[in-house]
Amino acid sequence: MDPSFNDIFTSPDNDIFKVVFFPDRIYHARYLNATRSRRYRYNVQEVRGKFDTIVLKGEVYMDGLFLSNFVRIEYRAGRLVEVARERGRFVRGELLAWIRLRVDDDPPAEATVKMQYDRWVDAFQVELWQTLEAPAGRRHDFQVLDMMGREGQITHVPALDLALANVKNIRQVELAFSENDRDLPFGYPIAPAERAWDNNFVSSHQEPRSQTPSDAGNTVDDQNYLINFQRGWFVPKARDVAPVRYLNGMMDGENPDRGDDNVIEMRWLLQREFGGSVVFFHEVTIPPGTVEGTHQHIGSEELYYITEGTGVAYMREGDDPSTDRYPTVTRDIYGIGPRACKELPVQPGSIIFTKSGGMHGIRNQGQQPLRFVAFLYHTA
Questions:
Q1: Domain containing 330: what range?
Q2: How far is 133 from 151, CA to CA, in rounded Å?
Q3: Which of 57, 76, 123, 355 could covalently link to 52 via disulfide, CB atoms 3.0 to 4.6 Å apart?
C-alpha cells in the first residue's frame, strides 16, 4: 500500500480532529462497511451532519489500489420513529432514503435507496459506490461481497454515477427519509401514500421575492434536509441583503397592536447553510412605533442581541426571575391569548434569550429604527 495513504490515519492533525471536531473527523476504519475485511481502506475526505443525519464522502481502496468514490449516509431516525408511531407502526431494520446530489452547476442527480440498520454505528446507513466491480484480476472479499447489491448496505445506483465521479465537487446533498416499503417482520407492503416521512417536516426558508408585506411567495417550501459541503460564507455587507417584510408578524386578529402600517423587516442572512440544529441567523428591523408580536417558543430557543435603537421587550412573567422588579403588563400571546409579561427596557448590547416554553416580543418606542440579530435553533 502507498505509504502516503497511511499518513491520512497517522498524522497528528487527523488524530486531533477525530477527537475534538466531531463529526467532521477522520473516521476509524472499523465504522465503515468494507473494512470488515482488512483488504479495504477508506479515505474520508469530508463529513457533514444535520440533526440525526451524517453524510461522508471520499474514496475506497482495495489491496492498496483505488477502487471507487463513495458517499455514505447515516440516519438515526429519531423523528421518523415518532411519525411512524402515530400510524401504529415501528421503524424496524430497513427504511428508504430519497437522495439528491448537486455537483457544481450540473443538473442534480437523485434516487431512492434502501437503508439498513447497523449496530456498529447504531444508525441506519447505506454507502453509494461509483462501482461495485473489483479491480482487474482481483475478487472482492466474501465478507464485503455479501453486503453489496441493489438493496445492500453497499450499493451502486447508475443515476448517481456522474455525481459520484466528481465526488470532491459534490456541494449539496438533499435528503428525506420514509418508512420501509414493507412492514417488518410481517412483510405486508406499505403503499407510498401511507408511509410516514421525515422530510424535515414543514421546513421552509425565506427569500425576498416580493416586497409586499407577508407575501406567501417569500416562503419557500423545502421538504428535505440540506447537507451543505461549502466550507465558508462571506457576506461583505449584510445591509445590502434585501429584507423580507412582515405585516403584523406573530399577532392574532384581535391583537390591539395590529395595524396597516405595523410592518417589520427581516434580513435572512443564513438559513439552510447551517448544520446541526441552528435554523437561522437574521437581522430584524423594528421601525419606530411598530411591534413584533409576543409569541411562545416550543422545541426551539432564540437569542436576540440588540445592536441599534431603544425600546421595550416583553418576557412572560416568571420566565426570568431576575426581571421581577420590572413592570408587569398584559400581552396577547400569538395563538394563546393574554398573559402577564414583564416589560423590559432594551438598548444596544441588551440580550433577550428565550428557552423552549418561553415567551418574548419587542416594541420600538423610540424615534430611530430598533435593530437586533437573532439566532434560532432546535432544542433537540
A1: 232-378
A2: 16
A3: 76
